[in-house]
Amino acid sequence: MTAWLLPENVEDVLPPQAWRMEDMRRALLDLFRGRGYQLVIPPLMEYVDSLLTGVGADLDLKTFKLVDQLTGRLMGVRADITSQVARIDAHLLAANAVNRLCYAGSVLHTQSDGFHRSREPIQVGAELYGEAGAEADLEILTLMLQGLDACGVKTLQLDIGHVGVYRALAQEAGLSGTVEHQLFGALQAKDSSAVMVLTAGLPVALRDAFAALPQLYGDRSVLAEARARLPQLAAIAAALDTLEVLDHGLVGVEAAYDLAELRGYGYHSGVVFAAYTGGRSHAIAQGGRYDEVGRVFGRARPATGFSLDLRELVIASSDKQ
Amino acid sequence: MSNSGITLALSKGRIFEETLPLLAAAGITPTENPESSRKLIIGTNRADVRLIIVRASDVPTYVQYGAADLGIAGKDVLNEHGGNGLYQPLDLQIARCRMMVAVREGYDYAGMVKQGARIRVATKYVNAARDHFSSKGVHIDLIKLYGSMELAPLVGLSDVIVDLVSTGGTLKANGLVAVEHISDISSRLVVNQAALKLKRNLIQPVIDAFASAVAAGSTR
């Protein structure tokens, strides 16, 4: 008899972890509520047309799909709640207002993100719409750190990047299609030799700039170094200005800056960040800016937010006990 | 992922031997030789650095999941693994060889790999074989083997093989010829992404020492 068998990377949450997880969920939602964030509860599934646009475009393979028996249209079980919240902001709520939204719920992945990672993460997050400035990024970043703190998870390392730097260089170099995609992959892997091969045909200044990106990683001195080593492009200067605002605003946290960090490059448009804790081989919370995502739902809106997986948080907090 | 010290995953044989000078450049000396010892965890002269000895094709897996912070793996192995979740900051220029297509002597390879053709390919490197032949517009039936690929064309298991060629000695001894060069292979340093962030003060000096040893080696 194997009637008890659960699918791979699918698990029950048992005592005492279940209460701990619920305590964390409440602590996070209470924190968000105290900061003026409105709760939204999007549906578990919707048409893939809305689910897989914008933020969700990277998620096609990860999304479980089913056919709606009422319409014959293809539906997906959400693999990420962010795209749903972006839809709510762009389509349902008051135009041009600043919206602070938060959510908590299960998502489903066809493939696990890695060893021992659930295919049913419990995603909790907060999103801030309608504010384009670095102050909004700082608000979200601070909220993420306070959230982890409220759950008793110590942030050992905070990594901050900005996809605008690579985007500006790629545009200046006139890169597109396959080459931009390959170069993006090489930078993600910090694979300097592949970066050198892929940029061999470019002007020296740009070649040096791309080669410098994987090395522009470390404490705040990286920002000054980036100004000296990268070309004088308006978009790069603006990106570095934003990072400096964050650096001044973050209190009590030692952040590392990583200009080759391009996570979510498909939809992120500005700052990207991730928090790490000891003993976990991947980030425990992450977020960033994604200004263009609302366009498919009617209007592009400045947008920045973060999310985390409660299951990971419970593991991270029990590792230390 | 352990919280203190760093763990480097290596495979025995050629990669281990050619890594020793790099380790020496970083001030790391293993306390035992894995060829003679049966131990799988090997200490070094530094209390905060240890080596683990794993199968070459398992190195990316150990590093990806944080069981090792660093590893040394061939580009061939990384291509098959996919490289997900790994930084690959350094081409170490060691254990160099070529990924090649080889056939039985007298086999009309040029005549067989026309656009739209279909051939049988035996290999350990299924991703490399799939990518190579699909870029040529050739359909393939893949036969995954774990070793002694040279045998496959001789006993009629496949038309061609895709394999690593170093000196070409094994091909020659079995009456095979290399007919197409797919890519140059060398070993890479791979690093767990979270480890680089959380243990940067331990890991970065090793990367830098390896990098300058490699640079010194290539100018000689």
Structure overview:
Chain A has 321 residues and is α+β, with helices and mostly antiparallel strands. Chain A is 38% helix and 18% strand. Chain A has eleven helices and twelve strands. In chain A, the strands form two sheets. Chain A has a nine-stranded mixed sheet with strand order 1-5-6-12-11-10-7-9-8, sandwiched between helices. The longest helix of chain A has 18 residues, at 17-34. With 220 residues, chain B is α/β, with parallel strands linked by helices. Helix content of chain B is 34%, strand content 30%. Chain B is built from nine helices and eleven strands. Chain B has a six-stranded mixed sheet with strand order 2-3-1-4-11-5. A five-stranded mixed sheet of chain B has the order 8-7-9-6-10. In chain B, strand 2 and strand 3 (49-53) form a beta hairpin. The chains are: A alpha+beta (321), B alpha/beta (220). Chain A binds chain B through residues 114-116, 156-157, 159, 189-194, 214, 218, 256, 276, 278-283, and chain B through 1, 3, 64-66, 83, 85-91, 188, 191-195, 197-198, 200.
What is the share of helical residues of chain A? 25-40%
- Average pLDDT across residues of chain B? 91
* Run of helices and strands of chain A: HEEHEEHEEHEHHHHEHHEEEEH
| Radius of gyration of chain A using CA atoms only | 20 Å
Strand content of chain A: 15-25%
Q: Could you give the distance between the termini of chain A? A: 36 Å
